[in-house]
Design goal:
heterodimer, A: 409 residues, alpha+beta, two-stranded antiparallel sheet, 20% strand, B: alpha/beta, globular, binds adenosine-5'-triphosphate, binds magnesium ion
Chain lengths: 409, 227
């Protein structure tokens, strides 16, 4: 009998070809538009996250318990035998572990001074995370023989009027309150993507920093990159279980950077409102089609009921028609849109002119990135089917209220 | 025992607003194998009576027994099933499903009754054959004349092997030649297979061919005669 439903529904759809095409096009268009928009949004969030998280913070960080709240230099942890490092690295889903010792100091040139972030890192490892070598605008990055040298951010260099070859004076406090003062030759200037980091940062090899702060082997964090950024939460959770160390806190980037999450949520919900309006319009369009589909067949449905066709059967028949229509529209839309998204995901649209300039200034690639993940398709497709599910209440209700005599008048 | 027995049926439309007394104390018995016409002026209640006997409309009071089942006691769902298995319908016009071929229109009812597609199609073919349409079984209603469509409707009404066939003005939309051909077929099925027909009509030529004529006037039976 299912076979019969399908034949009947299929032929009924083609009774009014133009209307069927228009409705299918509405479904097609809404899915196409929603997919493109969602893909662009998720793509840009992905690049926002990669530009901040993936270019400095890391997806996950390990600190001494309490460090993130106190930011105190007293909350260091020590990993002399590298047992913590080895446990982290044993995790196959982790692609990079960067040890860091960070603090704030006063940096001075000839005439001015500014409070600055001082990052002791492993130049070899951290070049994959903080990407500093990619942003070098003057001078050069560290090589293996540099131990007593610094790279400073472009904003700091401009403010202090310093260039490669000049000397940077650093004044501050180290571990247990010892005073740490030093002078370092500047080997390079980096124009960093994050405005905050670019304003005032100093990078130097971690051993030099540990010596400067009187904290041998001391670390503020292991910053971790994972292979699959979407799985960071699971991996952070797994890591917590694996390390089993009550002295350490394991935080993912969503906890580390709540502002970023908020910015994404605000943007995302404004997009959702637009899509909601679109869905509403399309929903009413489909509903209109359903009304017409039913009202022009009133007589025929009345005859079917009079002859002894069950109400359930009539309701199902109408729903099957609606479902075939939606299935066709959505399959065509997916088949058409997905290759485009995939192409744009692999070949993002390049930006030109002022926009490109602005993005380059922030050290970002001047492109409109697209996402092509399951997440992109998931919500538009499910919304359309939920809409259809709601709309199908009407034909069902109609079938259960149909009066054969009225209908056959 | 009568197939249909209508006792003391009253039908009042809109009892709460503008009541229309469409059937008044109607009593009627139809035996198996009858070929009966219900006649009467427009508005006399022919359609109303047929709808009540067909389980399409409810009565205001009285009972309608089909064999020993009281239609007035059945639920909507039971009525639908009853119509499918016990009653054949031929309506005035346009009562075929437009997207189905003649064959499928007839087979549809059989499939609803639970027969396999194969069985339904072979039975439907026989039925269409018996109404003289074996050449047109793959045509859709739009490709058939009004008379041919009505013959398909008769084939459909009979395919389910109902206890009786109800036809409300089956010839009203047909020219006299098609009407007479339809009547020939109905008469033959009645004579050869003993199918019980109950139909309403205005048409003098059709009335002449009925074996029994029940006349309604203002919702009441005014005469009932065999001829
Ligand atoms: N749904 C309804 N609501 C109110 N009154 C109705 C309704 N249906 C029929 N009537 C009335 O009931 C009476 C009987 O109508 P019915 O249709 O049974 O007559 P009929 O004999 O079939 O007439 P015709 O020969 O014109 O088909 C008429 O007065 C009609 O106006
Ligand atoms: Mg009538």
């Amino acid at each position: 009998m299912l076979h019969f439903y399908l034949i009947l529904a299929w032929r009924n759809l083609w009774r009014n070809k133009r209307r069927t095409f228009i409705t299918m096009f509405a479904i097609f268009f809404s899915i196409f538009f929603a997919l493109m928009m969602r893909s662009m949004q998720l793509g840009s969030y992905g690049s926002m996250i990669e530009n901040t998280v993936g270019r400095y913070t890391g997806h996950i960080q390990v600190h001494k318990n309490g460090y993130w709240d106190s930011r105190s230099f007293e909350d260091l942890f020590f990993d002399e035998d590298e047992s913590i490092l080895k446990k982290i690295q044993a995790n196959t889903e982790i692609s990079l572990v960067a040890p860091r010792l960070e603090s704030f100091m006063l940096a001075a040139g000839d005439h001015k001074s500014r409070a600055t972030l001082v990052v002791g890192f492993n130049p070899e490892i951290d070049k994959h995370l903080s990407n500093v070598p990619k942003f070098i605008s003057e001078g050069r990055y560290f090589n293996a023989s540099d131990s007593n040298a610094v790279v400073i951010s472009n904003g700091l260099a401009e403010y202090l009027n310093l260039h490669p070859g000049d000397t940077l004076i650093a004044l501050g406090q180290g571990y247990h309150g010892i005073s740490s003062n030093a002078a370092f030759p500047i080997i390079g200037i980096a124009k960093l993507s994050s405005p905050e980091l670019n304003r005032a940062s100093v990078f130097l090899p971690i051993q030099t920093a540990q010596y400067l702060f009187g904290a041998e082997n001391g670390l503020t964090s292991y910053s971790i990159l994972v292979d699959n950024p979407s799985k960071f939460k699971e991996i952070a959770h797994k890591l917590t279980n694996e390390l089993q160390n009550p002295d350490l806190e394991i935080m993912d980037w969503q906890v580390l950077m709540p502002e970023l999450i908020q910015a994404i949520e605000v943007d995302s919900s404004s997009g959702q409102i637009m899509l909601f309006v679109l869905y509403l319009v399309v929903g009413f369009g489909i509903f209109g089609t359903v009304l017409m589909m039913i009202s022009e067949r009133k007589f025929e449905l009345g005859v079917m009921l009079a002859l002894g066709t069950g109400r359930k059967y009539i309701g199902t028949l109408l729903c099957v028609e609606l479902f075939i229509l939606t299935l066709l529209g959505s399959v065509i839309a997916l088949g058409f849109t997905y290759p485009i998204l995939w192409y744009l995901y692999l070949n993002p649209i390049p930006l030109t002119g002022e926009m490109a300039e602005m993005m380059l200034n922030y050290g970002m690639e001047p492109i409109i990135p697209f996402a092509a993940s399951f997440e992109v398709m998931y919500s538009p497709i499910s919304v359309i089917y939920i809409l259809i599910g709601l709309i199908s209440f009407y034909p069902i209700r109609y079938a259960f209220r149909l009066n054969p005599i009225e209908a056959m008048k | 025992m009568a197939i249909i027995s209508v006792s003391n049926v009253e039908k009042i439309y809109n009892p709460d607003t503008i009541p229309v007394h469409a059937l008044k104390q109607v009593n009627l018995e139809i035996q198996k194998g009858e070929f009966t016409a219900i006649v009467g002026p427009s508005g006399s209640g022919k359609t109303t009576l047929l709808n009540c006997i067909g389980g399409l409309d409810t009565v205001s009071s009285g009972t309608i027994h089909i064999k020993n089942i009281d239609l007035t006691n059945l639920t909507d769902k039971e009525l639908i099933k009853f119509r499918l298995n016990h009653i054949g319908f031929v309506f005035q016009a346009y009562n075929l499903i437009p997207v189905l071929t003649a064959l499928e229109n007839v087979a549809f009812i059989l499939q609803l009754q639970g027969k396999s597609t194969k069985e339904a199609h072979s039975l439907a073919k026989q039925m269409l054959d018996s109404v003289g349409l074996s050449e047109r079984i793959h045509n859709r209603p739009a490709q058939l004349s009004g008379g041919q469509q009505q013959r398909v409707a008769v084939a459909r009404a009979l395919a389910s092997q109902p206890d009786y066939v109800l036809a409300d003005e089956p010839t009203a939309n047909l020219d006299s030649e098609s009407a007479s051909k339809l009547l020939d077929i109905m008469e033959r099925l009645n004579a050869e297979q003993g199918v019980t027909f109950l139909f309403s009509t205005h048409d003098e030529r059709v009335i002449r061919r009925a074996k029994r004529v029940v006349t309604l006037r203002d919702g009441a039976i005014s005469s009932d005669a065999n001829q």
